[in-house]
Amino acid sequence: PQNLANTAWAFATSGVAAPRLFDVIAVTSQPRLGEFNSQALANTAWAFAKAGVAAPRLFDAIAAVAQPRLGEFNSQGLANTAWAFATAGVD
User: Fold this and answer.
1) Hey, CA dihedral for 54, 25, 28, 59, is it positive or negative?
2) Rounded to an integer, what distance in angstroms lies between the CA atom of residue 20 and that of residue 48?
3) Most C-beta atoms within 10 A of its C-beta, which of 6, 39, 45, 47?
4) Helix, strand, or coil here: 54?
5) Which ranges constitute the DSSP H helices of the chain?
């Protein structure tokens, strides 16, 4: 799971448009989000929002996994996740 989050983060940070890669990461990540630690969840959400990739199912899945685990997030992770959801227009 960490590799998926790191790959999404790297491409979003680099500014390289890779919509097909992000689609594959979204589909591959969703069933495994329970294995992601809080930082990987935050980084994945941030990467998709930063890259401007619409992935409503992924964001819904991240929300479902993250909500009961919010105590595991540090302040930076919470801020990045909140920013990602706001930027992606997720309610």
Assistant:
1) negative
2) 12
3) 45
4) coil
5) 2-14, 19-29, 38-51, 56-66, 75-88
Query: How many angstroms separate the CA atoms of 22 and 29, rounded?
Result: 10
Question: For 13, left (φ over 0), alpha (ψ -120 to 50), or beta?
Answer: alpha
Q: For 67-91, what is the mean pLDDT?
A: 95
The Cα–Cα gap between 15 and 1 comes to 22
Q: Which two tokens stand for residue 73?
A: 């997030």
CA dihedral 6, 7, 10, 14 (to 10 degrees): -170
CB atoms within 10 A of CB 6: 14
Task: Identify the sign of the CA torsion 10, 19, 39, 37.
Answer: negative
| 91, two tokens | 């309610």
Bigger pLDDT: 1 vs 69: 69
Closest CA to 76 of 50, 41, 51: 41
